[in-house]
């Protein structure tokens, strides 16, 4: 049985990948969960229409941090269209944990920032 704090969640929370600023990012956006105070910023550098690098920063719970870490790993090498097509279920499955309704916003916060950033990038280009 999977639990909310699976080995995947704990590993990515304790040792987050791609945490920190990304200079000269093409896509930058931040999402906030007003219910718990989590705040995550996603930064993406493109090469053409392919994600070259993705990083995150902010303050979030174990689930939010793990989700951001997993998302930034998953993004590298994806086209912008593929990144835009990522869904909450993709991220929840990657966390390999039972994420209840009250914690779903924590798990999807980095994805919300990514999607908002892509929309802004497309509108400005």
* Biggest sheet: strand arrangement: 1-2-3
The residue fraction in helices comes out at 40-55%
Range of strand content: 15-25%
Structural class: alpha+beta
- What's the CATH class, please? Alpha Beta
How is the secondary structure organized here?
Elements: H1 7-14, E1 27-32, E2 39-47, E3 50-59, H2 62-75, H3 80-85, H4 88-95, H5 104-124
Antiparallel strand pairs: 1-2, 2-3
Helix pairs in contact: 1-2, 2-4, 2-5, 4-5
Structure notes:
The longest helix is centred in the C-terminal third of the chain and has 21 residues. The protein has one domain: Alpha-Beta Complex (Sufe protein. Chain: A), CATH 3.90.1010. It has 5 helices and 3 strands. A 3-stranded antiparallel beta sheet has the order 1-2-3, with helices on one face. Helix 1 packs across helix 2, helix 2 packs across helix 4 and helix 2 crosses helix 5. It is globular. With about 120 residues, the chain is an alpha+beta fold.
